[in-house]
Design a protein that fits this description.
By secondary structure, the protein is an alpha+beta fold. Helix content is 46%, strand content 20%. A hairpin with a 2-residue loop joins strand 2 and strand 3. About 11% of the residues have low confidence.
Length: 168
């Protein structure tokens, strides 16, 4: 009886592993258009709110309080949040400000030319709407309060705001 139970358990485990392996190896069809549209709208809403936050930061930041604003922005764009990030090429950079995958590499290349970038793709099995907005030092003269080196960069395009929204 115990042996049959072990054989049955082994059989169930093998079926689970085989099913899980097939699911991981399968390339499922893209999500429906309505789900993609919803995720695109959410990504756009994220961008709207983050840009509003950044422009508010430009308004209130002075040389005297730049260190406080810099610390606050660092907490908002913390390294544990994969759904919104600032990626760039000009110091100051943390490890999380470098491109993390092929999308971010391509998006940063486009941002350095002043272009936005977007696509729908799977990340670790989850479909996402991913978008990137090019960031320029020309957006505000207040950038130099926190990024003094921005005053001397040759290319005003210094990075990108990256967002992703899961597709339900």
């Amino acid at each position: 009886m115990v042996r049959r139970f072990h054989l049955l358990s082994l059989g169930v485990m093998l079926m689970f592993v085989a099913t899980s392996t097939r699911e991981l190896m399968a390339d499922p069809a893209p999500p429906p258009a309505a789900a993609i549209a919803f995720a695109n709208d959410v990504a756009d809403a994220m961008i709207d709110r983050l840009v509003a936050l950044l422009f508010r930061e430009f308004e209130v930041t002075t040389p005297a309080n730049a260190h406080i604003g810099s610390a606050a922005i660092s907490l908002i764009f913390n390294d544990r949040n994969d759904d919104m990030r600032l990626v760039g090429t000009v110091e100051p950079l943390s490890a999380n400000n470098n491109p993390g995958d092929a999308f971010e590499t391509a998006a940063l290349e486009q941002a350095m030319l002043g272009n936005n970038f977007a696509r729908v793709e799977r990340v670790r099995g989850q479909w996402y709407s991913r978008k990137s907005i090019a960031i320029s030092t020309a957006f505000s003269s207040a950038c130099v309060h926190c990024h003094a080196n921005f005053a001397t960069v040759q290319n005003p395009w210094v990075g990108a705001l990256m967002v992703r929204s899961p597709i339900p």
